[in-house]
Amino acid sequence: MSELSLEDLTDFVVQAKAATYIGEGPRSLSYRLASCDLQYHSGPFSYLDSYFGGSDFIGQEVVYYDSKPVWAMNYYGRILDPDQMDQAQAGEILRKALSALYEEGRFLGGYQYSAGDITYIDLNDGDISQFSGREWMLRGETKVYELQYHGGLVKD
Fold first, then answer.
1. What is the pTM of this model?
2. CA separation for the pair 77, 133 (Å, rounded)
3. Which residue of 13, 32, 38, 68 could cross-link 20, Cys pair, CB 3.0 to 4.6 Å?
């Protein structure tokens, strides 16, 4: 197995995230009953995002390098005010906001995006090796969506 750099891992995670949920990539065969699974492969890297739910959802992303798990992230998100935002609206804003973030070549770090009366905010601590954070959306002054996440390197 060749040496894995954090820069190469970051680049791959950004590519994989952009190509799967955000890029509306095809769903793969579910590995767990009733899960929605998305995969991406490039060179020695493989990525699996597996989640459950819709307006309230939970999931995990795993990156494999030479078929060995090397990085993972867990997340839980939910719509807080279904009268002001539904699952489709949240997904549309997420795709726009995160596409713009990924175009910067990153997926961590303070970030804010606005579309109409919706503001998306993402704040976190750490780097790709160990991190935690949360993202949320405001419609005006009202928080209508939130997600918490954490992850980092996986080692033997």
1. 0.94
2. 12
3. 38
Residue written as token pair 């060749």:
2
115 vs 122: CA distance, rounded Å: 15
| Cα–Cα dist 23/26, whole Å | 9
Measured CA to CA, the distance from residue 57 to residue 79 in angstroms comes to 9
SS (H, E, C) 70-81: EEEEEEEEEECC
pLDDT digit string, tens, across residues 75-113:
999 999 999 999 999 999 999 999 999 999 999 989 999
pLDDT digits (tens, 9 = 90+) for 62-85: 999 999 999 999 999 999 999 999
Reading the block at residue 20, the tokens are 């799967």
